[in-house]
Amino acid sequence: QVGAGEDVVVFLHGLFATAGVLRPMRLAVQRHARIHTAALSYPPGPGAERVGARLGALLAALPQDSHIHLVGHSMGGVVVRHYAVTQGDPRVAQTITLASPFGGVPNLGWLGFEGARDLDAQSALLRAVRLTRPPRPIPHTSILAGEDFIGKSPEAHALPDGELVVLPGRGHNAILYDREATELVVRKVLAERAVRTAREAGFGSPGIR
Fold this sequence. Notes:
Structural class: alpha/beta
Strand content: 15-25%
Distance between the termini: 36 Å
C-alpha cells in the first residue's frame, strides 16, 4: 500500500523483546498521512549481521522510490545503523536509535550467543559501526535514557557523527513508552520529509531563500 515517493518507518526491537513493544510508537507515527510503518521480530540469538539480513529482506518488499526511516531500540538500533552504513541502500533517509549501546556493554559477551557478543564493550561490530562512514551522509539521531542500566554515561553510547538527545530520568525500556521520546521520533520523520519535499520543489537549491 506504499505509494510512489511515500515514507516508511521501519522499527526494530531490542535483544529480548518482540515487535509488540514498539506498537505505541508505531501508532503515533502512522497517524500522519502518507507515512507507513513496518516491523519485524527476531529471536535473542542471531547477531546484528544476521538480523540485518532479515531487515534487508523486509526492505526488499518496499518500492524502490520509497523513503525509509530506520528506528531501532537497543540492539535493534545497532542493527539498523550497521545496515545503513554497510548496505548502500539509497532509500534510507535516516536512522534513529533509542537506548542503543554503541559504546558496548561490559562483559555481556559471557552470555555466549552471537547477539550478546555483538553488544559487548569489546565488539568488533560496534567498532565498525562507530568508525564506518557510508558513501553518502545518512543522518543519525541517538535518543538515550539518562537512567539506563547498560553502564557508562549516556554520552559514551553516542555516535561521533550523529545528533545526541539524552532524556533524564528515563530507563532502558521505559523510553519506548515515553511521550517525549515518541514525539521526538515523529518530529524527526516529519522534518526529514519536509526538508526533502522542499529540496525537490527547488527551495533547497543554492542561492534560494
